[in-house]
Amino acid sequence: MSSTITSGTLKVTITEQVILNGRDQGSKNTLSIGSINEVVRRIFTTNGTAQTVVLNFAATADGTRVADGDVRYVRITNLDDTNFATLVITGDNSTSFSVRLDPGASYLVTSTSTTGTADYADISGTTLEDLSQVQATADTAAVDLEVFVASA
């Protein structure tokens, strides 16, 4: 069976708006990523303050994982208005780093190259690793997270 999906271009626009002393100090940047033919979007609630798997990467996509070499854009947004979450990003060498995701904040991973999230992050301090998983831990109480992934 051949696919009937026509690939498209993902357009991501980041806009900052702030007036200081009567002058506009804001900025607007747009990134266009072509050849997108797969999108995963979901909103879910974390498992209280226990670690919750947000996203799995693998060499080949299946029902629970996205293909690391095809990923071009990931956005994880904390939809909670009170509590932060900690994202734990793990590489294929089982090393990881963590980032705080405040209420309303987003964490972005962008790869416009053909490697996607393979050889993406220097987690261990010595070499680039493939991303293998993202987990979230809520600070005080469960939080709602929105995940958006676009792949080629």
How would you characterize this protein structure?
The protein is an all-beta fold and 152 residues long. The protein is 0% helix and 54% strand. It has no helices and 13 strands. A 5-stranded mixed sheet has the order 7-6-12-9-10, with no helix packed on it. Strand 9 (85-91) and strand 10 form a beta hairpin. The chain is globular. The mean pLDDT is 92.
List the helices and strands and how they pair.
Elements: E1 8-16, E2 19-20, E3 23-24, E4 27-36, E5 38-45, E6 52-58, E7 66-67, E8 71-78, E9 85-91, E10 96-101, E11 106-110, E12 131-138, E13 144-151
Parallel strand pairs: 6-7
Antiparallel strand pairs: 1-4, 2-3, 5-13, 6-12, 8-11, 8-13, 9-10, 9-12
Helical stretch tally: 0
Mean pLDDT metric? 92
Strand order of the largest sheet: 7-6-12-9-10
Helix and strand pattern? EEEEEEEEEEEEE
First-last Cα distance = 19 Å
Strand content: over 45%
Q: What can be said about the biggest beta sheet? A: 5 strands, mixed
- Spans of at least 5 consecutive residues whose pLDDT stays below 50 are none
Based on helices, strands and strand pairing, what is the structural class?
Answer: mainly beta
Radius of gyration: 17 Å
Indicate the percent of residues in helices. Answer: under 10%
Shape: globular
Tell me the number of strands: 13
Main attributes of the structure:
152 residues; mainly beta; 5-stranded mixed β-sheet; 4-stranded antiparallel β-sheet; 13 strands; 54% strand; globular
